[in-house]
Amino acid sequence: MKNFTKIFVSIFFVGYIKYAPGTWGSIVSLSIMYILFELLRLQFMIIAIIFIFCFFISNFFINYFSTITDSYDSKKIVIDELLGIFTIFLFYDLIFINNNILTYSLIFIIFRFFDIVKIYPANYFDKHYKNGYGVILDDIIAGLYTVITLIILNVFI
Fold first, then answer.
1. Nearest to 9 by CA among 96, 75, 70, 106
2. pLDDT tens-digit profile of 8-30?
3. Cα separation of 5 and 81, whole Å?
4. CA 136, 114, 90, 66: dihedral to nearest 10 degrees?
């Protein structure tokens, strides 16, 4: 169970990369979303069910990982980046700009900005919820801020 937990929360040990694990986690997350949305072309309802399942199972494994490593919000945990980017892709039809390369690049840049800066209420969840939900929700909020930013950009492009 410990090894599976480490694999899961670090997205196949991407979180163990010493330099900028959150950035690498975001890159891998974009790759996973590309597979789900572009290659597999899953229906929205299936995507939403996968997201909800991942949300709750990630909370469980983040809490377990925190217990076995005696840490909170370890840099090795990057499954939250996946959930943040997953949130963005739930709104992909609203945020698509010109082509996939441009859209994916903007998602990456804007999401990383909001994930690092942690604008309210992301910083509130990050500071006040010392569990898996606190780890996850700040990234989901960063994802929602990214969606709002891209919708606004779409108006002007």
1. 75
2. 999 988 998 989 999 999 999 99
3. 16
4. -10
Task: Let me know the angle formed at the C-alpha of 106 by 104 and 112, rounded to the nearest 5 degrees.
Answer: 100
The tokens for 47 are 């995507």
> What are residue 10's phi and psi, to 5 degrees?
-95, 5
Stated pTM of the model? 0.91
> Tens digits of per-residue pLDDT, 111-143?
999 999 999 998 888 888 888 898 999 999 999
| Rounded CA separation 111/145 (Å) | 8
Encoded tokens for 11: 């997205």
Cis peptide leading into residue 21 (ω within 30°): no
DSSP H or E stretch at residue 135: helix 132-156
Do 68 and 5 touch, CB atoms closer than 8 A? yes
Are residues 106 and 150 in contact, defined by beta-carbon separation less than 8 angstroms? yes
State how far the Cα of 144 lies from the Cα of 8, in Å rounded to an integer: 23
